[in-house]
Each structure stands twice: as C-alpha cells, then as structure tokens.
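EI: anyone free to look at a 191-residue chain?
SC: sure, send it
EI:
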Amino acid sequence: PPKWTNVPSDVVNECTLDLSSSDPEFSDPCLSDVNFTYHGYELVEQTSCITKVKQTWTAQDSCHEGITFHQYVTKHDTTPPTLSPSSLDPIEVSCDSFSDWSPQVLTGEDNCGEGPEDVYAGEPIKYSQKCEDDFHLLYTWSYSDDCGLSTKVTQVVHVYDSAAPEFDVQVDAELDAHCHNYTEAPEVTAT
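SC: here you go
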C-alpha cells in the first residue's frame, strides 16, 4: 500500500478557520497508479467561540490497498478584548464642579471583532463618605467578547468640598446699642 511521507500538522487559529493547508504527500513502493482524493471537511465541534473541523485525504493503489489521513483545524479565540486607555489615574473633582463632570468614554476592541466600540462606565459605587459633599466614587468600564472573555478598567474619583460656607448678607461685626434702645440682630443665611 502507499505510505504518507509528509503530512500537514493540526492547526489552531484565533479568529479564522484556515483550511488552506497543503495536501499530504505519499509514496507507493510498487509505483502503481494511486488514486489520491481529498474528501473535504466535516464539523467536529461547534460552540460560541470554538469551531473544529476534520479534513480527510485518502490514497488507494490499483490493488485497492489504501491509507487515510485526517487533519484537525480549529478556530479558538483565547485572547481577551482590550480597553483603551488600559488604566486611569485617580482624580479629584470639587463638589461645586462635579455636576459638570462626566466619566470619559473608553474604546473597546476585540482581536476577532468587527471594529472598535465606545464603552461607557457603569453606575459608580460610593464609599468613604465623610459628609454630603465629600466622598469617593469607583467607576468601572467592562468589555466582553462573544466568547465571554472580558477586560475592565476602574477609576477612583474623589469628590471634595474645600470651600467654607459664606454668609449671604454682610453685617457689621459689632453693634452698639443702649440697654433700652437696641435693634434685633439681622437674620442671615449661609451657603
């Protein structure tokens, strides 16, 4: 019977199912006519992120003695997506300007995806609250691909109050009044 002399190795690719490998090579000691056939491929495994097929070749001589070779080709995404920027430094925002501040939009990209996407931060977690206008917020950006591989970026925002309250009206620091003729202290508010 013929014998395989050079055969392609099994193939694993991240994002594509590459069936373009070279044909196996064979020899026949009797130098008889050999019928060499590629039988195509059949699906072996199919999940959301793994596709595995089996390619088959046969070689049969004129005496109907034959050999069969199988090559397995797999598409398997094992690389998590990325977020850009990949990290964010902590920042501080004063309470009087926090209403105008918003977390930035990151860019998510997957090696097997169609292109970059905008990724927005989820709802922040508030912690270390000292008072109404002094607290920390933890923002998280998460991005996942079709295989469940994911990545995330976090940022801590410290919202702080650095200004003392101010009176809304100006009053004299001292008032002179006689014991039978005095005025009531003015009503003031502070913000």
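EI: Residues 174 and 180 are 18 Å apart (CA to CA).
SC: 👍
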